Amino acid sequence: MSDNSFGRLLRVTTFGESHGPAIGCVVDGCPPGIALAADDFRRDLDRRATGKTRHTSARREADEIEILSGVYEGLTTGTPIGLLIRNTDARSRDYGSIAEQFRPGHADYAYWQKYGIRDPRGGGRSSARETTMRVAAGVIARKWLAERHGIEIQGFLSQLGEIHPTGIDLSVVEGNPFFWPDAGQVAELEAYMDALRKSGDSVGARVDVVARGVPPGWGEPVYGKLDGELAAALMSINAVKGVEVGDGFESVAQKGSEHRDRMTPGGFLSNHAGGVLGGISTGQDLRCSVAFKPTSSLRLPVDGLDVHGEVVEVVTTGRHDPCVGIRAIPICEAMVALVLMDQALRHRAQCGDVGAVAPRIPGHAGEADDKR
Ligand SMILES: C=C(O[C@@H]1CC(C(=O)O)=C[C@@H](OP(=O)(O)O)[C@H]1O)C(=O)O
């Protein structure tokens, strides 16, 4: 079985290549009756798109979504939702010189070994262009989660190369091209990225995602753990090399007495667990952190190999992201949304009759148990 689908009750399949005629997805299992129009996709597709600032690839795609099926008179019908975006700005000549070469650090070599053939134009199926359809599918999940459960999902850039935020203010994240949570550092980031771009190099980044309002009880206890599925979904994004939930790898150095999140009638006193215990949500904020490697399509020459095993000098021309993590925020948000909606539907299917269970502990001490 080929692996272009994920999710169980909400099942998403994507298809398409970076320089093919179109990319698309099928979202199957979406409940009927959700208002859905092409306009709903605009905001998140624009947040992810290339060509919006000088700090991302200069390719300018229209990213106009066509809803092919599953919606009638503005409402989802419960049948598969087919979404399509036509590619409008592919420039395949940029890939002529590396069509038979392997970029060190790129999927080129692994695809070649697996399939014995590859579409080198724009990286074909391995291109980050594919993430457009994850974001599109995620729009439906975000909408359903917000309308039915009051859940809000927000991501931000929590590290760019060696630069860390000096403060975290989520209200400023959408106001700068880096999705950065500290407005006072934006000039520093601009200068850093300008110098990086001029040097021809790339850099890694870290993206944090918080989901607020997730009710307790979502997730499966063993093989379908909520954190396990979040890790798999986030890890499946291009260039991701690490995922943490809650304190993640920092937990290694913690004592149990420090890590355990104490419960009081007024709420949890901390959130080291990141909102998941035993693979099941606790009602606290869900916290994930995702590591993106530096992109490998560089104009800096490097010795490499071609498909004949000959040593060649590899130089990648064209329009590339010096830091792909910058526009990965909506992609990470979408993957979290899709996992949550799938788990919500699975929870409803098995445990829909259980109802509210006492005691219900608010996410944070002192906070009212919101909307749930
Ligand atoms: C087009 C997108 O990103 C592309 C991702 C990408 C890569 O190698 O992953 C390389 C570039 O493609 P091209 O060389 O065809 O311009 C990016 O522009 C997109 O995200 O929509």
Topology:
Layout: E1 5-6, E2 11-16, E3 22-28, H1 42-48, E4 65-69, E5 71-72, E6 75-76, E7 81-86, H2 108-115, H3 131-149, E8 152-160, H4 186-199, E9 205-212, H5 226-235, E10 240-245, H6 256-259, E11 263-264, E12 267-268, E13 276-277, E14 280-281, E15 286-292, E16 302-305, E17 311-314, H7 329-351
Helix pairs in contact: 3-7, 5-7
Bound molecules: the ligand C=C(O[C@@H]1CC(C(=O)O)=C[C@@H](OP(=O)(O)O)[C@H]1O)C(=O)O.
Q: Which CATH-level-2 architecture of the domain at 93-351?
A: 4-Layer Sandwich
Termini gap: 39 Å
Which outline best applies?
globular
Considering the protein shown, what is the CATH homologous superfamily of the domain at 93-351?
Chorismate synthase AroC
Subunit structure: Homotetramer.
Catalytic activity: 5-O-(1-carboxyvinyl)-3-phosphoshikimate = chorismate + phosphate
Pathway: Metabolic intermediate biosynthesis; chorismate biosynthesis; chorismate from D-erythrose 4-phosphate and phosphoenolpyruvate: step 7/7
Function: This reaction introduces a second double bond into the aromatic ring system.
